[in-house]
Amino acid sequence: INNVGKTALLEVIFLLKSLNAYEIPFQLNFDRGIFQQQTFEVEEVCEWLFYNKQVSKAIKIKIVDENDEESELILSLNKALSPRLFPLSPKPNSRKTIKDLKLEFKKTGQKLLEFTTFLTPEQEERMRIEIQQDKEQEAREIEVFPTSVFLRSRLRVSPTEDAEIFSQFEAINKQNEIIEILKIIEPRLKRLAVLVTGGIPMIHGDIGGDYLIPVSLMGEGMGRLLSIILSIMNAKEGTVLIDEIENGIHHSVMEKVWQSIAVATR
What we know:
Strand content: 25-35%
Strand order of the largest sheet: 1-2-3-4-5
Number of strands: 10
Shape: elongated
Largest sheet: 5 strands, antiparallel
Helix content: 25-40%
Oligomer: single chain
Number of domains: 2
Distance between the termini: 30 Å
Number of helices: 8
């Protein structure tokens, strides 16, 4: 079923599970392809997070877990509490009121986290995300949230990111676990290695040929499956959200893909 809000639901869960990463609310719309990362106006970046761009109303996300514990995340756009310095903008319709994004997280009615985020210039055509917290919260120990990953349907994980995660597992001699999982799809796979191609580190595989080849060239969605497996293994005790898991994977191997994912989650 298309256009019923499946991706939006995953984004909501991702927001709630990613409170360690202050950039996620901004990154969501950049990943949607709505904005380029040259604007410094928080309202412009975040307004499509709000239903029908009704930025005067707060977003409230509530979940109840298996222990009947309720968690709530509130996002709101509020007038900036302090002046901001921005580069000169060629746009004649810049907003008159500068707004910041406020996030508030509660668990069983108790406020655990509250901070305000805003954008400031860092270098030419680049921005930095900054936060404001009250002194009481800065002094309080903040709960660390488990790793959360969102694999979008149209955005492929970068080869560099996959190579970095794989290298972490190779450093602790766990690369064979990854190889055994991938062999469910590609039985010829003997080993994996990170090779630098054109200045970019990429994971290559040995399937018995004269050369190691990039995993993404092995067919049947091997590159996407490897990204999924690495994300799952790298997010122990955390959450991995996958949008349109079948993208790039032929229907004839989907059963084996599910089998591979089941092994990775054990």
